[in-house]
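INFO  loader      accepted 1 record
INFO  loader      residues=134
INFO  predictor   begin
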Amino acid sequence: MNRREFLASAAATAALVPLGLRAAEAEKKKRASRDAVDLPPFKPSRTTPRANKKGFMFSTFRNTPGKAQGLREKFQMLRDAGFHGLEIQSGNDQKEVLAARDAAGLEIPSVLLATHWTHPFTDPNPSKRATSVE
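INFO  predictor   done
INFO  writer      dumping tokens
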């Protein structure tokens, strides 16, 4: 093939590409309309609320500017906002946390361990595990 034949065939191919694309698009639309199915309108499978509960990571709770709030007030605010429980950091006064929890009616399903990375509960060393429990 010489240069002229090559250029002629390349120009012919380039001129025919849009026709091929248009034909492929028409075939795609025809196939989509043929395969379309009449679906009934969406109807939720549940009419009752889910059992999932909303929780809050307590370390992200910030005081109202200019107003210091205790644990009891913060827990009650979370309850009033619709939360069911919270995750609190270790290192707080346990009696105060439990009293605030009971007063607000919240759950505390987990505690964020402040020393997690240095003394995890799952450490094979018993002394490190004991430190994390304290």
